[in-house]
Amino acid sequence: MSMFPQQDATALNDKDPEQLRIHSIETFGTHDGPGIRFIVFVQGCQFRCLYCHNPDTFDVKGGKFITLQEIEKRVLRQRPYFGKDGGITISGGEPLLHRKKILTLFKRLKEQGIHTCLDSNGRLVNKEVEELLEYTDLLMLDVKHINDDWHHKLTTVSNSATLKLAEMREKQGKPMWIRYVLVPGWSDQEEYLHELGQHFKDFTTIEKIEIQPYHKLGVHKWEAMGMEYGLEGVEAPTKEVIEKATAIFSQYFKEVHVN
Ligand code: SF4
């Protein structure tokens, strides 16, 4: 009999510092960070956003594995297309769940002069995350709601870690974008848009805020997974609602972009 407790292959892969559990890869992304980007969507998320269009990334034991070496090889192969702004973006799922492996990857890529970007919900704040952020050229922080009760309703968790992560980034003095999903009746309340603006208006590291109008492209995935979709009946924001949010954010941020 083996001296070691039995472990399945995926548990061993998770322990392997060179293997990253991912959902998918997009090679020429233009919506997640500046320029043309190699985007890795990692697997696993602790938020349960009602509008999530990638619910198939929820399961921390789902997805598939790719080695860091393979990612590095593919990024370097794509480098000629990055131009002066492009690079790698790690999105998800939630990248901070894979912070140690992403740190290793970012260290290697930065040695090669690759621009690194992290798209995170900010769920975790600790020393490891701080070090990862030091190797992250751009943090795109998803702030789902400035009011904690509404944040709970939208995501099932508190926004306190997200707001702390924003402060950590501000102390680092490195670039950050805020991303905000605009959902009619849920995150378009004028008073909270102002509150969000007030909260962040003195941050010097925020280059812009991106409004992401709610859409229903992921609904079929919820249905296919046999899960109830929590925003049934909610429509995409109208042009007027988007313009109103843009006007409010423009009072506090130097650049407001609608994705
Ligand atoms: S944080 Fe992102 S991946 Fe996680 S549930 Fe929310 S939208 Fe989905």
From TrEMBL:
Q: Which SUPFAM superfamilies match?
A: Radical SAM enzymes (SSF102114)
Q: Which reaction does it catalyse?
A: glycyl-[formate C-acetyltransferase] + reduced [flavodoxin] + S-adenosyl-L-methionine = glycin-2-yl radical-[formate C-acetyltransferase] + semiquinone [flavodoxin] + 5'-deoxyadenosine + L-methionine + H(+)
Compartment(s): Cytoplasm
State the UniProt keywords alphabetically: 4Fe-4S, Cytoplasm, Iron, Iron-sulfur, Lyase, Metal-binding, Oxidoreductase, Pyruvate, S-adenosyl-L-methionine
EC number(s): the record gives 1.97.1.4
Q: State the superkingdom.
A: Bacteria
Q: Does the keyword Oxidoreductase apply?
A: yes
Q: Which residues form the Radical SAM core domain?
A: 31-251
GO cellular-component term (any):
cytoplasm
Q: Does the keyword Heme apply?
A: no
Q: Which cofactor does it need?
A: [4Fe-4S] cluster
Q: Which InterPro entries match?
A: Aldolase_TIM (IPR013785), Organic_radical-activating (IPR034457), Organic_radical_activase (IPR012839), PFL1_activating (IPR012838), Radical_activat_CS (IPR001989), rSAM (IPR007197), rSAM_sf (IPR058240)
Any one GO molecular function term: metal ion binding
Q: Which Pfam families match?
A: Radical_SAM (PF04055)
Q: How is the cofactor bound?
A: Binds 1 [4Fe-4S] cluster. The cluster is coordinated with 3 cysteines and an exchangeable S-adenosyl-L-methionine.
Tell me, what does this protein do in biology? Answer: Activation of pyruvate formate-lyase 1 under anaerobic conditions by generation of an organic free radical, using S-adenosylmethionine and reduced flavodoxin as cosubstrates to produce 5'-deoxy-adenosine. Activation of pyruvate formate-lyase under anaerobic conditions by generation of an organic free radical, using S-adenosylmethionine and reduced flavodoxin as cosubstrates to produce 5'-deoxy-adenosine.
Q: Which family does it belong to?
A: Belongs to the organic radical-activating enzymes family.
In Swiss-Prot or TrEMBL terms, this protein is called Pyruvate formate-lyase-activating enzyme
Q: Which organism is it from?
A: Flammeovirga agarivorans
